[in-house]
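Input structure tokens:
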């Protein structure tokens, strides 16, 4: 199923999506980025006229305006840019009024989204055995600006939602000591490490760990392209996990 794409934002991720698009039978018909040569500099009817799905990996400072303009032209959309989730309900209503298809996500790694499902299942299983204590840690390169990562926060929410003993997440050092209801999820920043997330379950006699490691940023481009194919003929408001759940059904 071929999909005609418009890319909003032509930085590293936009260029990667464009390079990989043919592998997914997708064609980039237009690119919008005011900071790049040979691109449209604004969202117009001309820029979107041939596109079936718009993929946005731009910047939090412009994402809200981008979404509203794309919806005004009634185009389906995949959004990988974050920093706007406080407007989820507002955008959801606009999608419903526009009658379009809209898919967003904080992490477009297919592996990570399946990993979250495994973490949920493991947490529920080990929750039945009080001798096991759950923990997590993540490692990223030293250039990463935030700590903990957004993915670590999402994994922590997954654990808390499926644990009867953990009530809150602790991302800072455990001073003076961790409380039994606290989930400790530590962060390391060093070198050139790709994104690595580990969730473990420990007892006095054994340790079980689930791990996910990103080896290339192209995994997010793959996810975005699969999302574009999935949303092409759909109407409604979805997140990336909805797509994963649909494929796994």
């Amino acid at each position: 199923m071929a999909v005609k794409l418009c890319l909003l934002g032509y930085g590293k991720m936009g260029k990667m999506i464009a390079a990989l698009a043919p592998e997914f039978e997708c064609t980039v018909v237009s690119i919008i980025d005011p900071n790049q040569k040979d691109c449209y500099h604004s969202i117009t009817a001309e820029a979107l006229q041939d596109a079936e799905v718009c993929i946005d990996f731009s910047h939090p400072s412009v994402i809200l305006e981008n979404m509203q303009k794309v919806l005004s032209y009634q185009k389906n959309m995949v959004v990988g840019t974050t920093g706007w989730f406080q407007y989820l309900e507002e955008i959801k209503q606009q999608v419903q009024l526009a009658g379009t298809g809209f898919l967003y996500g904080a992490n477009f790694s297919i592996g990570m989204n399946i990993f979250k499902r495994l973490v949920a299942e493991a947490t529920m299983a080990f929750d039945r055995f009080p001798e096991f204590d759950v923990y997590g840690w993540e490692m990223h390169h030293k250039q990463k600006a935030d700590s903990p990562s957004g993915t670590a926060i999402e994994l922590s929410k997954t654990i808390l939602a499926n644990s009867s003993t953990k009530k809150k997440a602790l991302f800072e050092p455990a001073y003076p000591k961790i409380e039994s209801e606290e989930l400790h999820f530590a962060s390391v920043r060093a070198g050139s490490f790709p994104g690595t997330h580990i969730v473990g379950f420990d007892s006095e006699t054994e340790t079980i760990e689930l791990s996910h490691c990103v080896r290339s940023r192209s995994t997010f481009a793959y996810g975005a392209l699969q999302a574009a194919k999935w949303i092409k003929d759909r109407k409604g408001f979805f997140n990336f996990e909805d797509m994963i759940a649909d494929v796994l059904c």
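The helical segments are 12-20, 45-48, 60-72, 88-98, 110-126, 150-162, 218-231, 240-248. The mean pLDDT is 94.
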